Amino acid sequence: MKQYLFFDLDGTVTDSKTGIIRSVQHALAHFNVSRADEDLLYFIGPPLRDSFGKIFDGDTAKAELAVKKYREYYTVTGIFENALYDGIADLLAALRGAGRVVSLATSKPEPFALRILEHFGIAGLFDHVAGAELTGPRNSKSSVLRHACGLCDVDDMQQCLMVGDRKYDVLGAHAVGMSCAGVLYGYGSRRELEEAGAECLCDDVPSLRRMLLA
Question: Which residues are catalytic?
């Protein structure tokens, strides 16, 4: 029974694949680069600059321009090509009702994360919202989690649990000394989460609810 719960956004709270992939395709079109949608799923989770860096072989100037082009589409349209996972809002409300401290911890830029939560009417279900900076050093999952722990005034990492769908969530949680529950309804595979060392795995939102409220 962990007191402080930190939820990832993409692939954990919302199904955001459509908006993210269309935004990536918009950016790649500027460079006349063609990729199948299924080959771009790795963009969901890590910082954008890292993902574009893989396509452009570490060319930081191209990666930065690609991020700019991505946001041209994402900030207007892609951000809302998104949906809440069934049952997630009820789970967040139940956790708050049980006295748990519930925070969002996402590598998505914080202003975008706030817009998404407000769009779906669930901003009030989080005690704190921690995201990456649009420009600045806070962009990895570990740096976001350190920021989130500061907002919560955490003094015992054993009372903390990260909930996410990718290895970045697991590795980021472990880097700051907390455990991680992996969810299999998102974008990471069972193998990915197991190899990263997730302490437990949940097949769907009902099983996550049973685990968190047991």
Answer: 8
